[in-house]
Amino acid sequence: MTAGAVSGEERLARAALTRLTEPGDENVGRWLGRMGAVRLVRGLTGAGPPPEGAREDRLTGCRARAGTLDPRGDLATVARLGGRFLCPGDTEWPGQLDDLGDARPIGLWVRGSPNVRLWALRSVAVVGARACTDYGSRVAALLGSGLAERGWVVISGAAYGVDGAAHRGALAAGGATVAVLASGIDVPYPRGHAELIGRIAEQGLVLAELPPGGHPTRSRFVLRNRVIAALTRGTVVVEAQYRSGSLVTARRARELGRQTMGVPGPVTSGLSAGVHELLREGACLVTDADEVVELVGSIGELAPRRRGPVVARDLLDAGAVRALEAVPGRGGGDLGLIARDAGMGREHALARLYELQALGFVERLGDRWQLADAASTSGTPKPPGRRPPARRGGA
């Protein structure tokens, strides 16, 4: 068990409630706040007064589940896995989960040795489509490894596709990653990711609201997403269709005041449609880990400035640029024409033209000046050099 202000009786009762009730039930959250865990368990199982407002069919269902309650056995099971059961009030409890209000988890079943509270303080969720494209898988892996290399914890749901790629990217970089499951921590789901989830438990953390042996359902996946959203500083979505659990996570994150981010994709792909809709709703567009960290990190953690390649023309000062732009593209022009179009005196214009000639941007033919061959097409000057002497006489 984890040291903290939570009594042994309270911990046992909360462990029982994770088997007795479903995750994210706000009625249970309200009853828990009024009655405490011990009285609530008694009320739901018929051993004490029922909670106010509880329907009879609800109480009947809880009493049916009461026969399966063995909180001491569940705590022993998680201890054998090298894990623990966290409750609100424990020193390791991640306080940002309290932002969920009455939908806050009753407790968290944990595998892995790192401190959940400390890891959650510097974490980012990377989520997306299960049936992602190669592009989505590659982007998710790069985000996972990039965030891990920058000291951020990558949190996801261990699903196929984007989730798995993000976890693998973080693990490959030797970084920190957390899997939040919609099943018990001893029930790896999907089955094909049993090895991956085992690696995450060894190198990072595996979290679940369901007790040991708990199996995932469709509704539990949706409810799991609220934990991912609340636990992290921000959520990045990589590929998602319009109806996607990833969008549920991102929108819940936005409601909780967290950063929401999306990686754009081809407009012709249905897997990009949900992300693009999220961006239209106000999420921030990101393309790599640097841009994610700029949004969720501390002051000064800025992404590098992005720009195209620097060409020689970029290095000219304003006067040289004006003189260059005044040189006609075809046939050239005399000094008077160039000085007039550049808006400068003849002597100033001539000095600029000699400067441009030395840099290879222009060339002089008698009394006329014209652009060097390459300058008119690519923005890169032709290397300066001597022109061959004109031939005299006939051919």
Main features:
disordered C terminus; Rossmann fold; alpha/beta; Arc Repressor Mutant, subunit A; 395 residues
> Which structural class is indicated by helix and strand composition?
alpha/beta
CATH topology type of the domain at 107-296: Rossmann fold
Describe the global form.
elongated
Beta-strand portion reads: 5-15%
Q: Strand order, main sheet: write it out.
A: 1-2-6-5-4-3-7-8-9
Number of strand elements: 12
The biggest sheet, with number of strands, parallel, antiparallel or mixed sense and barrel status, is: 9 strands, mixed
Question: What this model shows, in words?
Answer:
- This protein has helices at 8-20, 26-35, 37-45, 56-66, 71-80, 116-120, 134-149, 162-172, 194-203, 218-231, 245-255, 270-280, 289-296, 318-326, 335-342, 346-359; strands spanning 83-86, 108-111, 123-128, 153-156, 177-181, 205-208, 234-238, 259-263, 284-285, 333-334, 362-365, 368-371.
- It is 43% helix and 12% strand.
- 44% of the residues are buried.
- The radius of gyration is 32 Å and the shape is elongated.
- Among the domains are: 107-296, 3-Layer(aba) Sandwich (Rossmann fold); 312-376, Winged helix-like DNA-binding domain superfamily/Winged helix DNA-binding domain (Arc Repressor Mutant, subunit A, Orthogonal Bundle).
- The strands form two sheets. Strands 1-2-6-5-4-3-7-8-9 form a nine-stranded mixed beta sheet, sandwiched between helices. A three-stranded antiparallel beta sheet has the order 10-12-11.
- The model is unreliable at 374-378 and 386-395 (pLDDT under 50).
- The protein is of the alpha/beta class and 395 residues long.
- The protein is built from 16 helices and twelve strands.
- Strand 3 (123-128), helix 7 and strand 4 form a beta-alpha-beta unit.
